[in-house]
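Supplementary Text 2. Reproducibility record for the structural model of the 79-residue chain.

All settings were left at their defaults, and a single model was retained for analysis rather than an ensemble. We include the record here because the model underlies the residue-level annotations in Supplementary Table 4.
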Amino acid sequence: MSLVPIRSLISSAYLTYLGSQNEIVREKCLTDWVSAVKTQEYSFTNFLSSEAEMLTWKKEGLPADTLSTENAIMILNSQ
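Retained model, structure tokens:
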């Protein structure tokens, strides 16, 4: 529970700054940010969505690749 604020910060930055970037840039920034805040493992997709939600997207035709899943999460968590 103590990691929620840090993971929320990383998620917010990810949503704000990396939406238009490709997978390579996203992974590099995420690695840098996680090491900068000295946190343990972090998963953007697992923090902001559930397995059930991701399975529903796949059933509805969303490709199973990471970029598509991250983009769906960004769309659903943005205004």
